[in-house]
Amino acid sequence: ANQGDELRALMDSQGDKKTEQSSNDVFRILVATDNHLGYLENDRIRGNDSFRSFEEIFRIAKASKVDFVLLGGDLFHDNKPSRATLVRASNILRKYCLGDDPVMFEILSDQTINFPDTACVNYEDPNYNIGLPVFSIHGNHDDPSGVGGYSAVDLLGCCNFVNYFGKATNINDIKLFPILMQKGTSKLALYGLGSIRDERLHRTFQSKKVQWVRPAEDKEDYFNLFVLHQNRLRRSQYYKNAISEAMLPGFLDMVVWGHEHECLIEPEESLGKNYFVSQPGSSIATSLSQGETRPKHVGILEIKGDQYRLTKVRLKTVRPFMMRDVILGEVEDLDDSGVLKYLEVIVEEMLENIRNDYGIETAFTKETMPLIRIRVDHTGFKKISPSKLGQNFVGKVANHDDIVSFHRKAQKKDSDGKSLAQIEIDNLLASRDDYKTPIHGRVTKHLKISEDMSVLTDKTIADYVQCFVEKMEKCAILDGFEKEVEAKKKALVMDRSINTKKDIDSIVADKLIIPEQDDQLLVENGDEKIMEIEDEPSLSISAPLSRQSQPSRQVRRSQRSERSQRNREVVVVEDESGSDYVPAGVLCDDSESISDAKEIEPSSRSSCSKPPSRS
Amino acid sequence: ANQGDELRALMDSQGDKKTEQSSNDVFRILVATDNHLGYLENDRIRGNDSFRSFEEIFRIAKASKVDFVLLGGDLFHDNKPSRATLVRASNILRKYCLGDDPVMFEILSDQTINFPDTACVNYEDPNYNIGLPVFSIHGNHDDPSGVGGYSAVDLLGCCNFVNYFGKATNINDIKLFPILMQKGTSKLALYGLGSIRDERLHRTFQSKKVQWVRPAEDKEDYFNLFVLHQNRLRRSQYYKNAISEAMLPGFLDMVVWGHEHECLIEPEESLGKNYFVSQPGSSIATSLSQGETRPKHVGILEIKGDQYRLTKVRLKTVRPFMMRDVILGEVEDLDDSGVLKYLEVIVEEMLENIRNDYGIETAFTKETMPLIRIRVDHTGFKKISPSKLGQNFVGKVANHDDIVSFHRKAQKKDSDGKSLAQIEIDNLLASRDDYKTPIHGRVTKHLKISEDMSVLTDKTIADYVQCFVEKMEKCAILDGFEKEVEAKKKALVMDRSINTKKDIDSIVADKLIIPEQDDQLLVENGDEKIMEIEDEPSLSISAPLSRQSQPSRQVRRSQRSERSQRNREVVVVEDESGSDYVPAGVLCDDSESISDAKEIEPSSRSSCSKPPSRS
């Protein structure tokens, strides 16, 4: 009933004929994140959960007539999703995203920069009828890896189901180009950054190497929306393993924060900055932790001019999940023989509560069977077998085999500031589904690498083994090995005492067999020996973002393409302090402010505004 | 020049305005197979080979203005293709298959049977502009496995790039439903059967459980084309590890034989039957064997009425490959110290020959660098290190590290018939890229399973380990384990001395821990205890194949959809001897001939003609 009301209210707000004119100026965006498609796909009870909620989200999107769906990463649970997961995801997207519904907003920015692989937003491809565009970044689960650096989201991008954006090409120097959109009088600058290992990204922020490209014309007219997928630190303390709200620039209006599974979707004002943060939370519980017990929602974000409104819509398909803490030592008249019975009673109570909360009157079905977690402090008691407790709840509890988790007495908490931050971090991390496998320890233990190994260390080897195991990258170890050798070679090249490729080879060969090299590594350049390092993604970031006319392309919705050509936006780069600058052709090293954005002629633009393709 | 001439001739044959009318009655089909996309994708030299030739095939298809492309399996090399391979494959298909080119033929048969997952041929989906349809079966490399039984080809099917057909739902009882097509006055019945393990399929053929469904109306008007992907035995001898031409029914007109990599594309009349066989061969060499040295071609198959013409088109992008046999013992004045030099001279000679054959005048490029294989009978000589020979040919030979293969004196061959067949088989198998890993031996060696294990044997365990390793199925071993337990349970159910599920559980539990069961396995049915086994794909195969009208669907090419509704074809089933029968609603157990095909009303048809979905 709750969801129905919300939806009806949403429909009322735009279904009315009188308001139709004004709703032509309102962006309506469904925001959701962490769908984890394929999570426990082989589980007989829970195998369909991720897909059921994903489909519900698209049903809501359709019913709410949103302009587009915005996803915050971890669309897939596995880095290499199974064929079944890919097929099921595709089928849902095909069902809801294709069709004749009109797409009422246009892209003003250069689509070859926003979508380097397809060079075009999906609904402008003349060979597809897209009725509901989806924009998505990647998360830590579906992050790019392997040959070519493709993400699982790329698989949905190349067949035009999803507009995948926010893939940083150089983690040490990130330039965020917004997708500039217009609907009626409203303008939206959509920034996205796919998941990067938190420590790395934190460092890039700290070294002021995250640059925000802003529209040079009418930049104050834009509503600035940013979607990211990182550990979130709400306090202002810096902690290297998370991104603090204070690190994000003040010109932003709204941040959609992915990765955090707890649903805190109602916009919260950031501390010290002017933007609001909405944390939609996951659409499926992938860990039995406190944060996942909160009811799951998605949001309908409406934007008109510089105003926004977010209406949350509860997901009805999400499996009920209840959690309770029990300290056995505090229970009267309890001994080891009574623990099982005691816990059984608690589970029954919890089931009863869930029945009441969810209005479930008949027996639990495969779909409604809840998740139950009891965290038991068993200090002074023996553990009981979780499966022994579980066998009475087959058909009643979805996770009957792991209802209980045991721990010893909680340690006393410090009260000084730093500790508190640490505790906050620990709590945050505990509620996440980050990989926590003991691979590193095991590799180190088995390798016992001698100290004088200077190319491959146990830590780097463990990283590659982890990638091999968890991301199922067949070649992770070999590729990693080659990478480390390359890095060592580069380092040696920088050493002035070494002058020829032969010198390097002989030094490296002392310890390692070198894989065959096709390319000459040394660039002879006077007495300076400079490596050919990866170029920056774009040398001319001051180029206008508008797409050039492409006369050979057929665009079905002609008014859209006409409008695309009309506005030519010039962009400037904004550093973290919020000032603008336009580098003259080549990116400046420092972030000094330069004013007077200039428009460059289309001919020169085309040659320099496209970043090098990631082949 | 050769290819250019061929293409020009092809274009002439239909580009002429005068012949336009008659070409409206001619099916033009590009036939190709075994593209092995992703083969050696990490190889710095050869990594692009499979994609380059695949793209060339589609360039030829476009230039030749074919009606569709027919692929014979092994589109992908890996059962779980990498993301990079999937993206690259999709990009090629998107580039060539989408667009406004008119599709000039129509499907007459029930598309929900031909394409059970999408229920529609890709070019009739109103949300896609398909200009060049592709029809493909799967091969042994990209065969269905894992959860849901999806093939890698399914991944291209669900996003509408490819029409995937010929997936048998029950290997022990195969019914082949043709895709019935019409172009002008020509009618085509396209049969397809994706790869099945040869021994299994052989057995199904032998037990007469392969049934050929034929159009009941005007069946003599159809040209019957069959595409399969199996070991091919051209002699009439039966050999359990291959399919003999004699096993296929006589009503066929043409068979496109996949899996065999040797290009024998020119149609060859089958022995004892009236059909012709075209074996296109692979578009990339995946083994350094004799069969792969033949020039690679694809074919343009033209069909008009009961006439056909096949024009072969040589693939220019295929890497040159030359092979030579050397018997060191027959070389005069050679000792161990001279072997390396002797082989080097031979490689140089071969490179010179390739230069002449291919007209390569400049240095070999990454694309033209050839494959070289010298098979050395080294009886009486020591082996040399292949990499020692190879280091002189870096940048000249694509496979410089494995130019030579060594073997001892060839054994004398028998001359009696049976042996010869065996030799033929051995030669055939040797030229294939089937997996030949020593997994089975290793598993057996490590397990040393005791004799009284009656559920899991070392052979079955080895099968699952192999699937885990080679198909990267994470759950292969667990799933296999569960499958064996199920099978054992079923066997026990058939045992009359056992009457309840409990009895079974207790017997099985003696040796194994049983995974949790959701479903009751026993179906109590009088004193007969019958298992719920998989139903046959369709109980009513006599239903007309035409698709029902779908008023809500928009079909852009209206004349096509109209025609689809017009013809209603009734099908009958043909057994191997070629006689027809129409079962009355339910499939008869034996294959007796029944005439008088009846048309069933659409309403009853819809409920029974769709096979159960494979969820």
From TrEMBL, chains A, B:
<dbReference type="GO" id="GO:0042138">
    <property type="term" value="P:meiotic DNA double-strand break formation"/>
</dbReference>
<feature type="compositionally biased region" description="Low complexity">
    <location>
        <begin position="603"/>
        <end position="615"/>
    </location>
</feature>
<feature type="domain" description="Mre11 DNA-binding">
    <location>
        <begin position="308"/>
        <end position="468"/>
    </location>
</feature>
<keyword id="KW-0469">Meiosis</keyword>
<dbReference type="GO" id="GO:0008296">
    <property type="term" value="F:3'-5'-DNA exonuclease activity"/>
</dbReference>
<dbReference type="GO" id="GO:0000724">
    <property type="term" value="P:double-strand break repair via homologous recombination"/>
</dbReference>
<dbReference type="InterPro" id="IPR038487">
    <property type="entry name" value="Mre11_capping_dom"/>
</dbReference>
<keyword id="KW-0539">Nucleus</keyword>
<keyword id="KW-0227">DNA damage</keyword>
<keyword id="KW-0234">DNA repair</keyword>
<feature type="region of interest" description="Disordered">
    <location>
        <begin position="1"/>
        <end position="21"/>
    </location>
</feature>
<dbReference type="InterPro" id="IPR003701">
    <property type="entry name" value="Mre11"/>
</dbReference>
<dbReference type="GO" id="GO:0030870">
    <property type="term" value="C:Mre11 complex"/>
</dbReference>
<keyword id="KW-0255">Endonuclease</keyword>
<dbReference type="Pfam" id="PF00149">
    <property type="entry name" value="Metallophos"/>
</dbReference>
<feature type="active site" description="Proton donor">
    <location>
        <position position="141"/>
    </location>
</feature>
<keyword id="KW-0479">Metal-binding</keyword>
<dbReference type="GO" id="GO:0007095">
    <property type="term" value="P:mitotic G2 DNA damage checkpoint signaling"/>
</dbReference>
<dbReference type="Pfam" id="PF04152">
    <property type="entry name" value="Mre11_DNA_bind"/>
</dbReference>
<dbReference type="GO" id="GO:0006303">
    <property type="term" value="P:double-strand break repair via nonhomologous end joining"/>
</dbReference>
<protein>
    <recommendedName>
        <fullName>Mre11 DNA-binding domain-containing protein</fullName>
    </recommendedName>
</protein>
<feature type="compositionally biased region" description="Basic and acidic residues">
    <location>
        <begin position="1"/>
        <end position="20"/>
    </location>
</feature>
<dbReference type="GO" id="GO:0030145">
    <property type="term" value="F:manganese ion binding"/>
</dbReference>
<comment type="similarity">
    <text>Belongs to the MRE11/RAD32 family.</text>
</comment>
<dbReference type="InterPro" id="IPR029052">
    <property type="entry name" value="Metallo-depent_PP-like"/>
</dbReference>
<keyword id="KW-0269">Exonuclease</keyword>
<keyword id="KW-0464">Manganese</keyword>
<keyword id="KW-0540">Nuclease</keyword>
<keyword id="KW-0378">Hydrolase</keyword>
<dbReference type="InterPro" id="IPR007281">
    <property type="entry name" value="Mre11_DNA-bd"/>
</dbReference>
<dbReference type="GO" id="GO:0035861">
    <property type="term" value="C:site of double-strand break"/>
</dbReference>
<dbReference type="GO" id="GO:0097552">
    <property type="term" value="P:mitochondrial double-strand break repair via homologous recombination"/>
</dbReference>
<dbReference type="InterPro" id="IPR004843">
    <property type="entry name" value="Calcineurin-like_PHP"/>
</dbReference>
<keyword id="KW-0158">Chromosome</keyword>
<feature type="compositionally biased region" description="Basic and acidic residues">
    <location>
        <begin position="559"/>
        <end position="571"/>
    </location>
</feature>
<feature type="region of interest" description="Disordered">
    <location>
        <begin position="539"/>
        <end position="615"/>
    </location>
</feature>
<dbReference type="GO" id="GO:0000723">
    <property type="term" value="P:telomere maintenance"/>
</dbReference>
<dbReference type="GO" id="GO:0000014">
    <property type="term" value="F:single-stranded DNA endodeoxyribonuclease activity"/>
</dbReference>
<dbReference type="InterPro" id="IPR041796">
    <property type="entry name" value="Mre11_N"/>
</dbReference>
